[in-house]
């Protein structure tokens, strides 16, 4: 039955494509969230500093939150809870990390911005969240994030909250991969 | 609509092996349809037994009979069995039995694949049910298996759950391909697209939905499997994933899935109402277009299940309006059914009673769906018993009632005997009253804030829950009457005529009752 065979192959192809489409939703979702800034996702690549000048006519309050994931033993907190900035000004904020255990632990911080729509306007020039951070047992360190608020930030946003959740990724940590990253 | 002029006699030589081999190796659409229907009935009672455990525990506040972990397994497996084991196989069984007859084809297009699609199904459910006996118990994350409940926080029964879902998905996709190829290639000469009975049309569209979304379900369970066992991080924020992504992919499957479970029901009701109103279906073409519109819209509304995940306002507005838009084609259907009955010479045999109950109660479920579609209101209703009330109205008094109606409607054609009308009416009234005792009060406890999937509740909900549980037990018992009717009808009774129902039209009523093992080996001529 060639008529059957042709139709069956077409329908099977549709099923297969839809299986692939499910996987394609993953990058589509990533890109969609990054472009629109919904979901509070910030860019994972360093931002360029735009020297458009500082908008001194208004101030924006940046609140800093830090939360180790429940399986992450590090003590993790920002140096100060909030900071008032002018849009366009570059600031550095340090996060304190301490590994109270005896073992080396690798951490990965995942940022989230609230309100979500403001995520597009918070630019990070340098951030500890861009790479995995390793810390030997009993040690502590300062982890900086260098950022500025885009002067194009819509006027309705007067406060932006930047939250980091810190995860223990020691299990999936690959030293070779991170050396390559440093070399770049 | 059509008449047969072919006068080929019944073939007495049915060439079928006897005993178990007949059922294992059969490629006959009627045998396979019967097996699907019996399997669905068994699963309906198994899933129902789990619902009884849930209602027993919720009869009183506090913990009485089961552990919370076991309660969660019951809500999860009840949902999975009812969706994938009862409603979907029942519709596939009806499709197998009726579609070839309704379009004048000798069998399904791919009979051997048809055998496979059925016979892998019992193994899928065997795996799922056996997972309940694993150390730590079976899946307990709800039938929606949200990550990270199903990834980080689940036990190893998840692997069995994933494989069971894979097999169910393969079975559904094969079944759907078979339906499309049969309808596309095997219609009798003269059976044009717009002459097809609506049950065939609705199943044709449903089959496309199945082919489009069952693979997406396969994707999402595979992602859960690899996240849990193979170190991927699709839904794990630590590895750059996002748990909200799970909900997007799941509901991209999940919303069309709920229409998969209701579109064939529309087809059944559109067959029954004209028969017992003794009038042609009002607005046939608009029914076809409405079904197609519902199917297309079903791909654009998935995020209305996720309003509380913190979506931006424009997205919630889009999904809210798109969801409300579905009420338009659905309203067209309800209008057409009512218009068909208008000034009809109606009689009220059991299939008609269930079809009428379907129209009223499904519409109630549709209205509570509209309430849930309102984003700000949904923040109050989300994850409460109001949602449970809503989807049980559309799935039990909607999908299940339509399947029962279909069983009564075609039972004389399948067995050759009339069912016991008195027992059938008793089944109907017991079901109708108990199902409303069971699900209607859930609206109120839900609005008052009782959360779903929790084995205990605040004291003020005690009376309502005792009431609901009694309704549940009565509804469960009422279904035993149905089994009695079916068994009695299969064993004998008043002989059914070929037409069975006075007002019935269509090819299936022009072949003898019971339907011969082989039908339409010579295609009928459709006038």
Describe what you observe in this structure:
The complex is a heterodimer of chains A (184) and B (527). With 184 residues, chain A is α+β, with helices and mostly antiparallel strands. Chain A has two domains: 1-36; 39-183, Ctag/Cox11 (Ctag/Cox11 (Pfam 04442)), CATH 2.60.370.10. Chain A is built from two helices and nine strands, in the order αβββββββββα. In chain A, strands 3-1-9-5-7 form a five-stranded mixed sheet, with no helix packed on it. A four-stranded antiparallel sheet of chain A has the order 2-4-8-6, with no helix packed on it. The longest helix of chain A has 35 residues, at 2-36. Chain A starts with a helix and ends with a helix. Chain B has a single domain (20-509), classed as Cytochrome C Oxidase, Chain A (Up-down Bundle), CATH 1.20.210. At the A-B interface, helix 1 and strand 9 of A face helix 6, helix 7 and helix 8 of B.
Q: Which helices and strands appear, and what pairs or packs with what?
A:
The complex is a heterodimer of chains A (184) and B (527).
Chain A: H1 2-36, E1 60-68, E2 75-78, E3 82-85, E4 90-98, E5 105-114, E6 122-127, E7 133-135, E8 140-149, E9 159-168, H2 175-183
Parallel strand pairs in A: 1-9
Antiparallel strand pairs in A: 1-3, 2-4, 4-8, 5-7, 5-9, 6-8
Chain B: H1 20-25, H2 29-57, H3 68-103, H4 111-119, H5 121-130, H6 157-185, H7 198-229, H8 243-260, H9 263-277, H10 284-297, H11 313-325, H12 327-341, H13 350-373, H14 375-381, H15 385-415, H16 421-447, H17 462-491
Helix pairs in contact in B: 2-3, 2-4, 2-17, 3-6, 3-15, 4-6, 5-6, 6-7, 7-8, 7-9, 7-10, 9-12, 9-13, 9-15, 10-12, 13-15, 13-16, 15-16, 16-17
Family (chain A): Belongs to the COX11/CtaG family.
Subcellular location (chain A): Cell inner membrane
Keywords (chain A): Copper, Membrane, Signal-anchor, Transmembrane, Transmembrane helix
């Amino acid at each position: 039955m060639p008529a059957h065979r042709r139709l069956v192959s077409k329908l099977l192809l549709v099923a297969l494509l839809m299986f692939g489409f499910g996987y394609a939703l993953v990058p589509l979702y990533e890109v969609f969230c990054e472009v629109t800034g919904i979901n509070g996702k910030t860019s994972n690549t360093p931002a360029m500093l735009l020297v458009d000048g500082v908008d001194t006519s208004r101030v924006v309050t940046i609140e800093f939150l830090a939360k180790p994931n429940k399986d992450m033993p590090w003590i993790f907190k920002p140096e100060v809870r909030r900071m008032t900035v002018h849009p366009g000004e570059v600031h550095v904020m340090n996060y304190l990390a301490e590994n109270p255990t005896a073992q080396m632990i690798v951490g990965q911080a995942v940022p989230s911005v609230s309100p979500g729509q403001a995520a597009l306007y918070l630019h990070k020039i340098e951030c500890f969240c861009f790479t995995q951070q390793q810390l030997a047992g009993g040690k502590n360190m300062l982890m900086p994030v260098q950022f500025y608020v885009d002067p194009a930030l819509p006027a309705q946003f007067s406060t932006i909250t930047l939250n980091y959740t810190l995860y223990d990724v020691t299990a999936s940590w690959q030293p070779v991969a991170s050396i390559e990253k440093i070399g770049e | 609509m059509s008449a047969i002029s072919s006068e080929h006699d019944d073939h007495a030589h049915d060439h079928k092996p006897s005993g178990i081999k007949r059922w294992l190796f059969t490629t006959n659409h009627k045998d396979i349809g019967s097996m699907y229907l019996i399997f669905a009935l068994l699963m309906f009672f198994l899933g129902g037994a789990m619902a009884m455990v849930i209602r027993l525990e919720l009869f009183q506040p506090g913990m009485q009979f089961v552990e919370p972990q076991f309660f969660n397994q019951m809500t999860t497996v009840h949902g999975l069995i009812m969706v994938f084991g009862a409603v979907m196989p029942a519709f596939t069984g009806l499709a197998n039995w009726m579609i070839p007859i309704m379009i004048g084809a000798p069998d399904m297009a791919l009979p051997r694949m048809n055998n496979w699609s059925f016979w892998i199904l019992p193994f899928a459910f065997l795996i799922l049910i056996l997972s309940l006996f694993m150390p730590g118990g079976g899946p307990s994350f709800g039938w929606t298996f949200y990550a990270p409940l199903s990834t980080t926080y689940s036990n190893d029964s998840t692997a069995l759950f994933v494989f069971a879902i894979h097999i169910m998905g393969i079975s559904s996709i094969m079944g759907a391909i078979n339906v499309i190829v049969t309808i596309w290639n095997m219609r009798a000469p003269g059976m044009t697209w717009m002459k097809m009975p609506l049950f065939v049309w609705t199943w044709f569209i449903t089959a496309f939905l199945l082919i489009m979304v069952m693979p997406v379900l396969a994707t999402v369970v595979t992602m859960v499997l690899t996240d849990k066992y193979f170190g991927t991080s699709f839904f794990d924020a630590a590895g750059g994933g996002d748990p909200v992504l799970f909900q997007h992919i799941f509901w991209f499957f999940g919303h069309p899935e709920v229409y998969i479970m209701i579109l064939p029901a529309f087809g059944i009701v559109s067959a029954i109402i004209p028969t017992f109103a003794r009038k042609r279906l009002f607005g046939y073409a608009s029914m076809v277009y409405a079904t197609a519109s519902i199917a297309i819209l079903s791909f654009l509304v998935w995020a209305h299940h996720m309003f509380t995940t913190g979506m931006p306002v424009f997205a919630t507005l889009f999904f809210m309006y798109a969801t409300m838009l579905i009420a338009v084609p659905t309203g067209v259907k309800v209008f057409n059914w009512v218009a068909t009955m208008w000034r009809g010479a109606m009689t009220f045999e059991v299939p008609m009673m269930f079809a009428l109950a379907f129209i009223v109660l499904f519409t109630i479920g549709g209205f509570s769906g509209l309430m849930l579609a309102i984003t700000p209101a949904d923040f109050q209703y989300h994850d409460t018993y109001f949602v449970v009330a809503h989807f049980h109205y559309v799935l039990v008094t909607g999908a299940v009632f339509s399947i029962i109606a279909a069983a009564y409607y075609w039972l004389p054609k399948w067995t050759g005997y009339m069912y016991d009308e008195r027992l059938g009416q008793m089944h109907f009234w017991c079901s109708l009253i108990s199902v409303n005792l069971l699900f209607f009060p859930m609206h109120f406890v839900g609005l008052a804030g009782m959360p779903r999937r929790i084995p205990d509740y605040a004291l003020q909900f005690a009376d309502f829950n005792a009431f609901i549980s009694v309704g549940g037990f009565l509804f469960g018992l009422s279904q035993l009457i149905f089994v009695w009717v079916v068994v009695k009808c299969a064993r004998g009774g008043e002989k059914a005529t070929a037409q069975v129902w006075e007002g019935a039209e269509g090819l299936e009523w022009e072949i003898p009752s019971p339907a011969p093992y082989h039908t339409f080996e010579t295609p009928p001529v459709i006038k």
